[in-house]
Amino acid sequence: MTDGVSTWGELAGRTLTKGHGTGNDFIFLTDPASEIPLDADLIARVCDRHFGIGADGFIRAAYTENFRTGQNMLEEHPDAIWFMDYRNGDGSIAEMCGNGVRAFVDYLRTEGMIDLEVGETVKIATRGGVKIVARTEEGYAIDMGPWSFIHGDTARESGEDSHVSARGLMTPRAGLSISMGNPHTVVMLGQEGKLDGLDLNSQPQVNPAPEKGTNVEFVVPVDLETSDENKNVGAIRMRVYERGVGETLSCGTGACAAAAATRFWGGEEAPDEWLVHVPGGTLAVTFVLGPDDLEHVVLAGPAQTVAKIELH
Fold it and tell me: Where on this chain does substrate bind (predicted)?
C-alpha cells in the first residue's frame, strides 16, 4: 500500500481546484514560478476518475515569463501575465483548449489573481498563442484566432481530406481536418440517430491522420434558429473524441472546428453565427474579421469553479 507522498509526489498536501465549461472539467494548480515537477504519470493519476480526482484535463496557472514560448509572446503582449499550462487527462501536453481557457479565467478571477468585470478583457498566454478573453453576463467569450484547413487547398477544393471509422458506423465517413491551434477532424452525419448510436469508448480511426494526431467531432445539423436581431443562426449537435482523453461532454476548440467545417460545407449562404449543442450544454460560435484581416472565431459560453480539493 502506498502513502500519500509516494502517490502524489510534489502535489501531496497541496490544494487543487476543480472547474468546468459545459461539462468539460479541469483541475487547476497555482504555481506562479512553475517550480512543481509535473510528469505525465502524475497528471494521469490525478485526473483518473476512479483512483484520483477525475478530470478531462489539468491546468497549471504560472507566470508567462517562466516559459520559453511565453517569453516570446510577452514581447508583443506584455500584459499577458498568466500562462495556461495545459495537459490532457493522460498527462500529454496540448496546445489549446477553448473550454479550458474560459474555466482558467474563471479560476484566476475567483482566486483573486485577476480583476475582471463584465465587459472587460484579459490576455492569456497558451501554447496556441495569446487569447483575448472577455467576461460576459453569461460567462466568457474568447477570440480563438483564425481557423485554417490542416491540408490546405486540397481540403478547400474537395471539402474532405480523410476517412473516419468509428464503432456504430457501418462504413467510413469523409472527414475535414481543421486547425484551431490544435488539430480537429470533423465528420458530418445525416441523421441524429447515427450520432446517438456512436460508440466513442474507443478511438475513431482517421486515415490519413494529421501528424500529431487529431480530435474527432461528429456533427448533425438541426433546424436553423433566429436570433433577436432576426439573423439566421446555424445550429448543430456534436459529440467529440478528444485525443489523450476520450469522449468528453464538450470541447471548445472542437465546437469552433465543427462550426467552421459545417459553415464551409454550407457555402456562401451559411450564417456567421452558430449554436453548438454538446452533451454538456450549448456553446456560441461566431465568425468575424480579425485585425489581421483573417477570419477569426469567437467562442462564448459559461464556466464555473466548483470545488477545492486537498491531496492527502
Answer: 24, 88, 98-99, 182, 215, 242-243, 252-253
Residue length of the chain:
312
Is 182 flagged in the annotation as binding?
Answer: yes
| Amino acid type, 309 | I
Q: Are 180 and 253 in contact (CB under 8 A)?
A: yes
Say how far apart CA 309 and CA 312 lie, in whole Å: 9
CATH code, domain with 276 = 3.10.310.10
229 vs 181, higher pLDDT? 181
Q: Is 98 annotated as a binding residue?
A: yes
Whether the CB-CB separation of 108 and 114 falls below 8 Å is answered with yes
Looking at the fold, whether 21 and 108 belong to one and the same domain comes out as yes
pLDDT tens digits along 249-303: 999 999 999 999 999 999 999 999 999 999 999 999 999 999 999 999 999 999 9
Buried b or exposed e, range 255-282, using 16+ CB within 10 angstroms: bbbbbbbbbbeeeeeebbbbbbbbebbb
Q: Are residues 36 and 14 in the same domain?
A: yes
Residue 37 lies in a domain: yes
**Confidence class for position 154, pLDDT limits 50, 70, 90:** confident
Q: Which residue out of 38, 108, 150, 251 is catalytically annotated?
A: 251
Co-location of 158 and 282 in the same domain: yes
Q: Is 72 annotated as a binding residue?
A: no
Q: Are residues 149 and 132 in the same domain?
A: no
> 97 an active-site residue?
yes
Its domain, for residue 199, covers 145-290
Question: What is the SS3 assignment for 14?
Answer: coil
Helix then strand then coil, % of the chain, to nearest 5: 20, 40, 40
CB 28 within 8 A of CB 100: no
Instruction: Kindly report, residue by residue over 203-236, the tens digit of the pLDDT.
Output: 999 999 988 899 999 999 997 655 555 568 999 9
